Amino acid sequence: MKPAPFVHHAPRSVDEAVEVLAQAGHDGKVLAGGQSLVPVLNMRLASPGHLVDVNGIPGLDGIDVSPDAVRVGALVRHRGLERSDAAAAALPLLRQAVVNVAHPAIRNRGTTVGSLAHADPAGEMPSVLALTDGVIEAVGPDGAREIPWDAFFLGPLETSLEHDELVVAARFGRFPQGTRTAFAESARRHGDYALAGVGVAVTLADGVVSAARASFVSVTPVPSVLDLGEILGGLEPGTDAWVSALDAVADAVDEHVDPDGDIHAAAGYRRMLAAELTRRTLTAAVTDGSSEDRR
Amino acid sequence: MTDTTTSAGEQLHEVTIRVNGVSRTASVPARRLLSDFLRHDLRLTGTHVGCEHGVCGACTVLVDGEPMRSCLMFAVSAQAHEVTTVEGLCTAPDARLAPTGESMNPVQQAFSECHGLQCGFCTPGFLTTVTAYLEENPTPTSEEAREAISGNLCRCTGYQNIVKSVLRAAEIKAERADEAAARQTPEERA
């Protein structure tokens, strides 16, 4: 339960980090918060020869709100995002989701961008990046590039990031005016990996739904967005038509998700949870005005 | 920072961390976990190591006042930070001498009063976690107290007395804050 030996690098700039990563080749790994990486090292599921500790690089710990996006730097801890009133006002979904990430002691150290780069299907923030149509900002030896979320997540724990690239920030897209969001998950204990989770975004125009989307945690191999616009479009929340459309939503979720069963829950149970949580979060989103994207 | 190597050829780093208000230095390999740095190198064995993958919460210490898992941090990454272990809680400004003769902070006092421990293995993690939690939420409900300790495992108590201890600790903390305020002279208050 102790990590294998490794060489510790503490670069002072992004360029230096990229240089070290390039030298280390496939034997290098980036260390930010380490809340997913260190357990893997402790259990010796991985034993990279070089750890590139980016905690000392200045300028990566900012949260910037622009009209289109909330940009979260690579060293912003989950807790920092949770406490950011500016981020919560611009994109309420961020706080709604990030409080579900593990326990406070983990959120105090773990970084949001690290969770994205780790690409665990049970991670909350990859699902949020998908739902917000977010973008990853990476820097490599050839300079900076932007990777849209759907080109970033390739499979469980697998991304399109090159071994010599460093994610310096993630941009979570802001929703159109009138969008309401909600996030919910079900876990054995609060803070544990979710058996199933869902985030939803419902845009209302003149009292009726103009757009609706959902993305999931723990029940799809990679984050993916389910467009519910066809089912819910034109409906007024709370009406009989809306309530009966939620049954069609549940069917669509059932079709969309592809959970695995394990010791904690059977696949069928997770499927049922995903459908029911979607039904509930949609209702919560349209009845709780505080979740509205304010600009 | 790099000093020598171990007999196995592993590079050693001179690591300096401020622990419980005292600057401590040791020569350790990069892979030394903060938990092992505290226990093995500094002989501060109050921090307990349970699962070593961040699940049990026994090794929780305060890093710059925030609870973190010392088993999920390397000592080299903790440099330039202020670490508080369970040994450091008894010197908190609101620690008082208990009837048993030890100095205890409000959380330690509450765990003692409410039988918030049996074997005591998980206790250091609970004490640090709850101490930080009450700074953020000084008046938790019973429900909030349960959520606050959800990241720490205890195999003895069934948690009931730990929840009571959290609520009692909030009371003691408030009492001691009132005492301190009453002792202040008017000039100090101004």
Helix proportion of chain B: 25-40%
CATH class value of the largest domain in chain B:
Mainly Alpha
Number of domains of chain A: 3
Q: Tell me which CATH architecture of the largest domain in chain B applies here.
A: Orthogonal Bundle
Radius of gyration of chain B: 18 Å
Strand content of chain B: 15-25%
Instruction: State the end-to-end distance of chain A.
Output: 49 Å
CATH superfamily of the largest domain in chain B: [2Fe-2S]-binding domain
Low-confidence stretches of chain B: none
Largest sheet of chain A: 5 strands, antiparallel
Q: What fraction strand of chain A?
A: 25-35%
Q: Please tell me what the overall shape of chain B is.
A: globular
| CATH architecture call of the largest domain in chain A | 2-Layer Sandwich
Shape of chain A: globular
Structure description:
- The complex is a heterodimer of chains A (295) and B (190).
- Chain A has helices at residues 14-24, 37-42, 78-83, 85-90, 92-98, 104-107, 112-118, 124-131, 149-152, 229-232, 240-256, 267-287; strands at residues 7-9, 28-31, 50-53, 63-65, 69-73, 135-140, 143-148, 153-155, 158-159, 166-173, 179-187, 194-205, 208-217, 225-227.
- With 295 residues, chain A is α+β, with helices and mostly antiparallel strands.
- In chain A, α2 links the parallel β2 and β3 (50-53).
- The longest helix of chain A has 21 residues, at 267-287.
- The termini of chain A are far apart.
- Chain B has 190 residues and is α+β, with helices and mostly antiparallel strands.
- Chain B has 2 domains: 2-87, Roll (Ubiquitin-like (UB roll)); 90-183, DNA polymerase, domain 1, CATH 1.10.150.120.
- Chain B contains 7 helices and 8 strands.
- Chain B has helices at 34-41, 86-89, 106-113, 123-136, 142-148, 160-183, 186-189; strands at residues 2-5, 11-19, 22-29, 60-63, 66-69, 82-84, 96-97, 103-104.
- In chain B, the strands form 2 sheets. In chain B, strands 1, 2, 3, 4, 5 and 6 form a 6-stranded mixed β-sheet that branches. Chain B has a two-stranded antiparallel sheet with strand order 7-8.
- Chain B is globular and about 60 Å long.
- The chains are: A alpha+beta (295), B alpha+beta (190).
- The A-B interface holds A 1-8, 10, 31, 34-35, 38-39, 41-43, 51, 53, 55, 79, 102-106, 108-109, 189-191 and B 8, 10-11, 13, 29-31, 33, 36, 52-54, 57, 60, 63, 66-69, 71-74, 76-77, 129, 133, 147-148, 150-151.
